[in-house]
Every structure is written in C-alpha cells, then in structure tokens.
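Justification of computing resources. Each target in the renewal requires a structure prediction run like the one illustrated here; the chain below, 301 residues long, is used simply to show the kind of job we budget for.
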Amino acid sequence: MQNVVFYDSQNDAIKAGFRPCKICKPMGIEGKTPDYVEKIIHDLQNDPYLKIKDYDLRKRGIEPNKIRRWFKVNHNMTFHAYQRMFRINKAYNQIKGGNSITNTAFGLGYESLSSFNQGWKKLFGTSDKKTNKIVINIIRFPTKIGTMFACATTKGLCLLEFSDRRMLETEFKDLCARLNAVILPGSNPYLDLVQIQIAEYLDGKRKNFDLDLHMVGTDFQRQVWQTLLKIPYGKTWSYKYEAEFMHKPSAIRAVASANGCNKIGLIVPCHRVIASDRSLGGYGGGLDRKQFLLTLENNNN
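Resulting structure tokens:
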C-alpha cells in the first residue's frame, strides 16, 4: 500500500504530526451518546407530559430514521418504544404513590384508558395496577473503556456491565426472574451516582465506591461477591486464595464460576482475581479491559 504509515499507538501517530479525524473522532469516549439523544432523554426525564412524535423530531432538526436506528442499535428498541416504556415507568411510580389510574393515564398523555391498560399489560403481564412486580431502572452511559449499562432498584445498584458482555441478556432475565421485576428506562439516584463514581475511578481519582449495592443471586454467589469486596485496591488474589479465604479450599471452580456470574463489574472487583500462575484468567468484560484495570490500580496504589 502507498501513502500508508502504521504506528503502535494513537499517541505515536500524534507525535509524528497526524491529527485525529474530525468526523469519526477516534480519540473520543467510546460509545458516547450523541448530544441530540442526550438532550431528548434529558427532556423526557424532566417533563412527565412530554410526548415526542416524528413531527417534533423534525422540528428539532432530527431525522426520525436516524434516531430510530440509534435506539435500535444501543437499546434494542425504537425511540417511540423507549418513550412508551419511559411513560409506563412514570405511571408505575405515580400509581404506587397514590395517584389515581385515570389521572395518571391522561396526565401522561394517553388518549384513552384502554391504550394505557394495553401498554401496562404488555410490560407487566397483567392489567392489575396493584401488581407486585417491581421496576428496575436502566441507563446506558459511556466510559473511556467502553459503553456500560447500569441497573438499579430502590435498594441499590444491581447491575453494571459493559454493553458488549456476551451474557448481558441472560443477566437481565435473571434479574427479572429473581426479583419479579421489569426493566424500564427511568431516573434513579443510584444511577446518577454510579456514572460519576465510575468516571472518577477510571481517571484514577477514586479507589473506593460509595453507593448501596443490591446483589441478586444465590446465597453462595452473594457470599463470593461479598468476599470480592474485601480485595484491596491495587492488589490481586488467585482463585485458590479466594476459595481459601472463604474457608472453602476445595471449591475453587465453584468460586471462579460465581466470580463469572458477578453482575456488578468494577465495583465488585472480580477483575482483581487472577490465575495461580499469575496469568489473567477469565473476565466477562474482556482480558484487555482486565489488564487495563489492573494496570490502572497498580499505577495509582
């Protein structure tokens, strides 16, 4: 190939006089939500009566097909489906708070009680507004090492995973089954906190996390995850040592399996567990990320 030069890293290319492409922005935060999407989500969060149609999108200078594709790729649903789920979440909170079904439905812009009931039943599996299902709120947010999903209940953070995690859909289903819940976009104080604290951690400015965790799993899995929280920042344990620490020296494989089922990445630090031969072992977020995290902590310890 002619007129092509290869460099080992982005920094080497910059030092040689090259500049990042202004269109694809390779130095930008991976998976960053476009500004126009952030603005719309912010508007939906702050105005419970807002209902954005294709006409409204065009008035904002947004092509409906463009935002539809973005939501399909990043949330596996259309923008209008996202709006419907957002409104149902608001309805759930209002009804639980004592508001009447009629006031809630028409207050959130539903044209009839039947359309509201249809949307409710589709998500909760019942038309009963006194359902015992709980709502798990979810957000997607960018980090310097990849886009993440975070989920939280009223008790705390229950999931924090990279969006390319192969077991993500299985984890969503497990959460819903164990908690008798549905996952809906919506605001939650734990979701606000986790974005701030993860950014600080990845910048090397935070060593400990300060937010409630709602660990969802078997009794043994929760015991293993509580043990992971005891591994100091900047240190690593072997799977064997972890099992011995739990007074279960013969359960190395079971402990390793429970590590792999950890749904709250980074904060419950399964990345700090490596093989006895000092190799990285496994990691659901990918070995490149595991190495990055261990190097980050070692350099800041």
